[in-house]
């Protein structure tokens, strides 16, 4: 994939961990300039140092704050002239039963996974259209966008079902105005990241539940780069990427 994305500018949200960090690495390896966004600036700075060079920018961003998201795209414009690729990866799940969870747990998931994603998408589309760029928006959805994974996952699944709806609606909007911009959802099953720690509130939770080998962040990052490097006439709509039942 080396060089396939040379000259492209990518914004990756949730780049401080898991799928986002690996996607930033894979995009940089494919030659893209990358703007890294998340709240934990120290982690972004470390990743930027690892990637090195002039082709990386860091922008601390809380996806619950619209002004942060606008600033993120302003930085990508200042540093790299705009954005050609948006990877809407920032997201989280919380164990939050519909009959008992505090509203704040639902609000956080809705604001990051749905509203923040939609605001970032709008900012990216406007930037791409201003420059006439044949850009690409990738939403990191989930298998939870396709079926509810369990009783404590209702609101999380609702946010990811919403991401699926937003993917299809954006595709329809872009097609109606004959835009060259593409939109894709990538829907992973279980991936070995900090997601389970956040979901359960237990550090190391994912490592504790390791009966089966699940996906590595790199597996999803490679799928994203594959999606981004298809020919212009081809749009991958929703890519389901699941682990097999291979034992550890
Ligand atoms: N792991 C899985 O099994 C799995 C499966 C399907 C889909 N997914 C999806 O994959 C995406 C990435 O998750 P992951 O598995 O890589 O989990 P992760 O390791 O916990 O990473 C989550 C990322 O989202 C960022 N984030 C969370 N809240 C944020 C906020 N308010 N503002 C800005 N950034 C925020 C985090 O950054 P900061 O905390 O530094 O802000 C972090 O970089 C999510 O959308 C998740 O729903 C994961």
Write the layout of secondary structure elements.
Blueprint: E1 9-13, H1 18-29, E2 33-38, H2 41-51, E3 56-60, H3 66-80, E4 85-88, H4 103-131, E5 136-140, H5 154-176, E6 182-188, H6 195-200, H7 205-208, H8 217-228, E7 238-241
Parallel strand pairs: 1-2, 1-4, 2-3, 4-5, 5-6, 6-7
Helix pairs in contact: 1-8, 3-4, 4-5
This protein binds NADP nicotinamide-adenine-dinucleotide phosphate.
Give a description of the structure:
The chain is of the alpha/beta class. It is built from eight helices and seven strands, in the order βαβαβαβαβαβαααβ. A seven-stranded parallel beta sheet has the order 3-2-1-4-5-6-7, sandwiched between helices. 42% of the residues are buried. Bound molecules: NADP nicotinamide-adenine-dinucleotide phosphate. Residues 14, 16-20, 38-40, 61-64, 89-93, 112, 140, 142, 188, 190-191, 193-195, 198 line the site of NADP nicotinamide-adenine-dinucleotide phosphate (NAP).
Mean pLDDT over the full residue set? 96
**What portion of the residues fall into strands of 2 or more residues?**
5-15%
Specify the overall morphology. globular
Broad structural category: alpha/beta
Helix fraction, binned, reads: 40-55%
Distance between the termini: 29 Å
Structure described in brief:
By secondary structure, the protein is of the alpha/beta class. Helix 3 (66-80) packs parallel to helix 4 (103-131) and helix 4 runs parallel beside helix 5 (154-176). It has helices at 18-29, 41-51, 66-80, 103-131, 154-176, 195-200, 205-208, 217-228, and strands spanning 9-13, 33-38, 56-60, 85-88, 136-140, 182-188, 238-241.
């Amino acid at each position: 994939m080396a060089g396939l994305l040379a000259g492209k500018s990518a914004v990756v949200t949730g780049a401080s961990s898991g799928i986002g960090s690996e996607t930033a690495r894979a995009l940089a390896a494919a030659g893209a300039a990358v703007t890294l966004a998340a709240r934990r600036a120290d982690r972004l700075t470390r990743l930027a140092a690892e990637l090195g060079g002039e082709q990386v920018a860091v922008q601390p961003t809380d996806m619950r704050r619209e002004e942060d998201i606008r600033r993120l795209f302003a930085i990508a414009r200042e540093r790299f002239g705009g954005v050609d690729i948006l990877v809407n990866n920032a997201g989280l799940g919380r164990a939050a039963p519909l009959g008992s969870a505090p509203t704040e747990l639902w609000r956080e998931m809705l604001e990051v996974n749905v509203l923040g994603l939609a605001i970032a998408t709008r900012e990216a589309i406007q930037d791409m259209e201003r420059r006439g760029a044949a850009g690409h928006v990738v939403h990191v959805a989930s298998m939870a966008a396709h079926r509810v994974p369990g009783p404590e996952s209702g609101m999380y699944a609702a946010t990811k079902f919403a991401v699926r709806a937003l993917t299809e609606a954006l595709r329809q909007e872009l097609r109606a105005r004959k835009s060259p911009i593409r939109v894709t959802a990538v829907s992973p099953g279980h991936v070995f990241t900090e997601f389970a720690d956040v979901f359960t509130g237990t550090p190391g939770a994912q490592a504790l539940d390791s009966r089966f080998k699940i996906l590595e962040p790199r597996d999803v990052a490679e799928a994203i780069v594959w999606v981004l490097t298809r020919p212009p006439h081809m749009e991958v709509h929703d890519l389901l990427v699941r682990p097999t039942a291979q034992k550890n």
